[in-house]
Amino acid sequence: MRASVGLIGVGAFGEFMLPYLLPHCRIGAYDPVRDLEPLSERWAVVPESLEEVAAKDIVILAMPVQRMADVCRQISPYLKPGAVVLDVCSVKEEPITAMLENLPDHVDIVGTHPLFGPQTGANGITGLRIALCNVRGDRLDCVEAFLSKELRLKTIITTAEEHDRQLAYVQGLTHLMSKIVVEMDMPVLDHTTETFDIMMKMVESVRYDSEELFRAIENRNRFVGETREKFFDAARTIEERLARPGPKTDSD
């Protein structure tokens, strides 16, 4: 019998997961703001109440990190003993703390962060990376086996602190740089180089991410502030260097 999965939060990433999970499990979905009836016509997903979704074998929390503690408190009475609760937040310390503080002791908890999204996974997710944090219980091995063998993802076992330290650069810096380029509103350019095209590929991969996600990456990871400060300090240093006369050459 296939496991039952409750998906709480069916935004861009929640919907993106469906075709990969549905061959392996039965999914009931809940979203507080989205009408899921059209979604259920495209996918074999059953719209259910929060109480029904929270009572599944596996519960996936796919909502913004700022809502995590509140949702955990809401679902806590309905989680059955032995269930596994996972999150998919882009930061790990804050949601893991929220789950530990607000979920009952009779559920196992695994923190996850798929290091890809609907744009970067548009051509398939085989070989893409996902970070895993064992929070409580002994189900990490089962989760990792499913992700690596069935979904063919590359798994990275880490701690919440180490994840957030590294993602302060990996996401905090790249999303910041991309948003700055988007804000420049450049014209259409024909005379591009390969290096420029690579940069624009980075920009396009996050251009349509929600403002909520961008703020979560930049403001909910305690290590990003230092990274952002280093970036702007370095930018000012380069600007000051360019304002000074350059070194003399033999042709001067």
UniProtKB/TrEMBL annotation:
UniProt-listed SUPFAM superfamilies: 6-phosphogluconate dehydrogenase C-terminal domain-like (SSF48179), NAD(P)-binding Rossmann-fold domains (SSF51735)
Pfam families on file: PDH_N
Recorded superkingdom: Bacteria
Keyword Cell inner membrane: no
PANTHER family assigned to the protein according to its UniProt record, in alphabetical order: PREPHENATE DEHYDROGENASE, PREPHENATE DEHYDROGENASE [NADP(+)]
Gene Ontology biological process terms from the UniProt entry: tyrosine biosynthetic process
Protein known as: Prephenate dehydrogenase/arogenate dehydrogenase family protein
Domain Prephenate/arogenate dehydrogenase: 3-252
Keyword line: Oxidoreductase
Source species taxonomy: Bacteria, Pseudomonadati, Pseudomonadota, Alphaproteobacteria, Rhodospirillales
Molecular function, one GO term: prephenate dehydrogenase (NAD+) activity
PROSITE patterns, alphabetized: PDH_ADH (PS51176)
Gene3D superfamilies named among the record's database cross-references: NAD(P)-binding Rossmann-like Domain
Annotated source species: Hwanghaeella grinnelliae
